[in-house]
Amino acid sequence: MILFWLILIPFLGGMLCWHSERWGEQAPRWIALATMLFVLAVSVVLWAGGDFSAYGTGERPWLLEWRVPWIPRFGIEIHLALDGLSLILIALTGFLGALAVLCSWKEIVERVGFFHLNLLFVLGGVVGVFLALDLLLFFLFWEVMLVPMYFLIALWGHSGSPGQTRIRAATRFFIYTQASGLLMLVAILALVFVHYTSSGEITFSYDALLNADVPDNLSFWIMLGFFIAFAVKLPVVPFHGWLPDAHAQAPTAGSVDLAGILLKTAAYGMLRFAIPLFPEQSQAFAPVAMALGVVGIIYGAVLACGQQDIKRLIAYASISHMGFVLIAVYSGSELAIQGAIVLMVAHAFSSAALFILSGQLFERIHTRDMRRMGGLWGRIPVLPGVTLFFLAASLGMPATANFLGEFMVLFGTFRSAPVVVVIASAGLVLGAIYSLLMMQRVHFGREQQPGLLAGPDVREYGMMLALIGLTLAVGLNPQPLLDTTASMVRPVADLFMAGPVRAGGMN
Amino acid sequence: MLTLIDLVGLLPLLIVASTAVLVMLGVAWRRHHGGTAAVTVSGLALALASLPLASAAPSSPPLMIFDGLALMGSALVLVSGLFIAAMSHGYLAGYRGPREEFYLLLLCAVTGALGLVASNHLATLFISLELLSMPLYGMVAYSFRTERSLEAGIKYLILSAAATAFLLFGMALIYARTGHLELTALAAGVAGSPDPWILGGAALLLVGLGFKLSIIPFHQWTPDVYQGGLAPATTVLATVSKLAVFLVLLRLVLVAPVFGSGWLLGLISLLALLSMFGGNLLALFQPDLKRLLGYSSIAHMGYLLVVVIVGGPLALETTGVYLFTYIVATMGAFGVIMHVSGTGSGEDASGLHHYRGLFWHSPWLAALLTLSMLSLAGIPLTAGFFGKFYIIALGVEGSRWWLVGGIVIGSVIGLFYYLRVIVTLYLREPGMQQAVADAGRGRVEKLALLIVAVSILLLGIYPVPFIDWVAGLAWAARLL
User: Fold this and answer.
1) Pairwise CA distance, residues B446 & B454, whole Å
2) Do A71 and B464 touch (CB under 8 A)?
3) Packing angle between helix B289-310 and helix B242-255, nearest 10 degrees?
4) What is its main location (chain A) (predicted)?
């Protein structure tokens, strides 16, 4: 039941925010903040009280589980389940959700209630994605988070150059993700009907479909349907067209959510659905997926080097980082998949921090164009130093969580695909180039204008210190995180090791 | 021979027809807008209430059949009629000409639709179809002093007459070969290898019905008539007319195997694909909300044709679910148009610019229009999602991958313009046009709109009772 409330609370909080607008401008902000902190608190309590070594076996496959029938006619259930990976990602959602509320405290001044309604609806949908086990329910939440995200970009975004308006960016985001979502729906339905013809039982249940007997010619296409849906969201390179625009035009809170959480739903979907449902096909497909990952790493990094807009630079860097995640997910090595999870968490922290910093920069100098910056080190107290820290994290400096994640990914993948690792390592060098380039162009060099700008206030200090602390904590002591997800990752890795034999009942 | 039991089965139709007579007499005696609307609404509500009684009676009047399909159709027709009658009152309040006759025409059209969904004979089919169409000419051209309305009425009249000619010719061809007009007998007559005459007749029937459904390439009238006609009249076209005609098409296909054969099925598939793509593409850059909805209805009929092509045990259920979700969303959209327009100012507020920033002065109307658009686009948590779910499921089950691809691509194109409408509602511009005339809008309209909004959400979140009901009806209808 507590899982159901985890999903419901953001939605209820969102409705309340909309209504609370009449009580004053601050009311929606406090309500939204309280809602997200509640989600964070619940997940931390669950994490502190959970025993993560005991589950994952036949007796007790999930840490927490809740199922009630929803549409019995099609065997659709409201089936929610929590394991280590979902718990980590939900805690992340709560944390970044709270940050998103905080960072828009001064940025969003109009339609405040409606803004927070959309923000909380996105986050509620994301929590739903991380918990849903029934395939239709999963699809539902997958789609539900799109509409409010569309509104966030379309209504509160920034319009860039002419022809690149926020509405255009929002529409492109929506159409990309919705098209891929429909593809996934078709794949889900095909899987369900194949299962129906072979077993006579119509169901969308994860457990039942894991053992579905799918004819070979069809199963590849169904797997591809799932893969493309997740690849668009991750994003994998030929499907990335929506990401830079969406990031560039979105408000800061939207970018934080997009980069920090929404991209992670894709990796989660691969680990939870695409690979366990189709282990053999995924294994056969792995070389292609890894190649796409490598292309993404290099492509994202090279394009990041050439950007003038700070947020676009960070967006392309995200594509590069997600390439590492994709490689790891399809490497089939336990170490690499663990690394992917660490990298996901680390990337959530560092990219969220960089987006928040660029938002704070925008509030002070009213531009995101790096050609009009320069020499800010002397003009703004504290913030340049923080930026330097997160850029160092982003390029994979040891002691930060990002280093650990990338290192584990490369180390784990090396045994199965050494060539991929060698090429992907080049991405690290490129990562150093664009990160330092950004630092150089924004904060060093000649001052464009004289005069001191305001330093961070308590709110901004708080956000940055929390993010720095977490990045270092995960980087220096990752063991609690690894222990939490180990029992979820091991079976996925085993699916690859098991070879062509269908490893049914992975949990 | 008609027996008393048969009359019980005919009860909804009789009630609506006698309400029409009552309204006519009332108008002759004394004009009273509110009274007429009240009589109409209560007549339709009474007919809806009598449906369970009528369906329980084992009636089989000549020329008609009361099976699950007919019951489903009657319920949908009456619900839409009720909504339109309730909304018309506020809409016509500012109209300067005679207002009461509109309800008379509405009741006649509903009677025709009720007959159409229950017809089991080509004669009843034809008469009911005409009884449905004739009042619509009048309703579309009701505000005949405005140029657009008159143009739309005449356009619809002429093209509709042409379609009727096709329909009649098709019937004649089939009759000439089989010697039967009753559907079941006719089906037995055409069983076996169909000859060219029967196939030709079936194709002509398809043309006639396809015109009413505005399937591409018989769609040219749709945008103009949608735009020019009075909003309630357009709503009748979009809901009552389309659903009744579609159900009769489905009945023909289910009963007569000739439609399921060879190239005719290929032809229907082609038309479906054309409608999906064409409707959505034509709507893309449409600046007029009513025209946009017209094009979108073309696309939706294209999706729905998948049911006709695939058939099978799920077909009836899919039809019921899809039609209802489509109708609810359409009612929501047109309800907002009716509420915003009112004929006091002459033409309807159908340009998208009228709705710019609607959210900031009437949030509830904007929320309803948003819900309707999301539902038409098939986004989860709205009614439309389950409609789309059913259609795609049917396509996948029937392994019609081309059609499934068409639905997916069509929906993606469709998103573009639905989103355009939605985002318009939330844009705030300096010096915004204030289009809403909120005076004279009674409680009834607000209640009707609220019910529509709630049902869009409810069907999206917990559709189980509705699905079970439709599934039960579909089960009953399959025994025919």
Assistant:
1) 12
2) yes
3) 10
4) membrane
Name which of B294, B216, B256, B280 is nearest B408 in CA terms.
B280
What is the C-alpha separation between B393 and B412, in angstroms, rounded?
17
Q: How far is B397 from chain A (nearest CA, A)?
A: 6
**Which one of A18, A73, A192 would you mutate to disrupt binding with B, by most B Cβ within 10 Å of its Cβ?**
A73
CB B19 within 8 A of CB B117: no
* B380, A140 Cβ separation under 8 angstroms: yes
Residue A218 lies in a domain: no
Give this prediction's pTM.
Answer: 0.91
Distances (CA, A) of A418 to A91, A292, A412: 34, 15, 10
Going from the C-alpha of A54 to that of each of A84, A90, A268, B277, the distances in angstroms are 11, 20, 22, 53
B291-316 mean pLDDT: 91
Give pLDDT tens digits for A350-401. Answer: 999 999 999 998 888 888 888 888 888 888 888 899 999 999 999 888 889 9
pLDDT digits (tens, 9 = 90+) for B371-426: 999 999 999 889 999 999 999 999 998 888 999 999 999 999 998 899 989 988 88
Alpha-carbon gap: A296 to the closest alpha carbon of chain B (Å) = 26
pLDDT(A501) > 50: no
How, if at all, do strands A76-82 and A64-71 pair?
antiparallel
Nearest to B419 among A139, A171, A190 (CB): A171
Range of the domain at A307: 283-498
Residues from A contacting B (CB-CB < 8 Å) are: 70-73, 110, 136, 139-140, 143-144, 146-147, 150-151, 154-155, 167, 170-171, 174-175, 178-179, 182-183, 185-186, 189-190, 193
Q: For chain A, what is the domain count? A: 1
Residue B260 above 70 pLDDT? Answer: no
**Minimum distance, in Å, between the CA of residue A206 and any CA atom of chain B:** 18
For B419, which of A174, A179, A182 is closest by C-beta distance?
Answer: A174
Closest-CA residue of A relative to B471 is A73
pLDDT at B330 over 90: yes
For B110, the enclosing helix (H) or strand (E) is helix B100-117
Mean pLDDT (whole number) for A242-257: 90
Q: Which of residues 344-403 of B touch A (CB under 8 A)?
A: 374, 379-381, 385, 389, 392-393, 396-397
Residue A106 lies in a domain: no
CA atoms within 13 A on the CB side of A437: 21
User: What digits encode the pLDDT tens for the residues A44-57?
Assistant: 998 888 777 655 55
The whole-angstrom separation of Cα B148 and Cα B131 is 24
- Which tokens sit at A129? 């994605």
Confirm whether A446 is domain-assigned: yes
Residues of A in contact with B468 (CB under 8 A): 73
Q: How confident is the model at residue A505 (pLDDT cuts 50, 70, 90)?
A: very low
User: Please, which residues have CB within 8 angstroms of residue A397's CB and are 6 or more apart in sequence?
Assistant: A403
Instruction: Give the C-alpha separation, A80 to A12, whole Å.
Output: 19
Residue bearing tokens 């799109």: A146
Question: Is residue A234 one of the residues assigned to a domain?
Answer: no
User: Helix, strand, or coil here: A81?
Assistant: strand
So what's the ipTM on this one?
A: 0.87
User: CB-CB: which of B426, B463, B467 is closest to A155?
Assistant: B426
C-alpha A473: how far from chain center? 20
| Amino acid letter, B259 | F
* pLDDT class of A84 with cuts at 50, 70, 90: confident
Specify whether the CB–CB gap between A226 and A273 falls below 8 A.
yes
pLDDT category of residue B281 using cuts at 50, 70 and 90 = very high
Query: Confidence class of residue B93 from pLDDT cuts 50, 70 and 90?
Result: confident
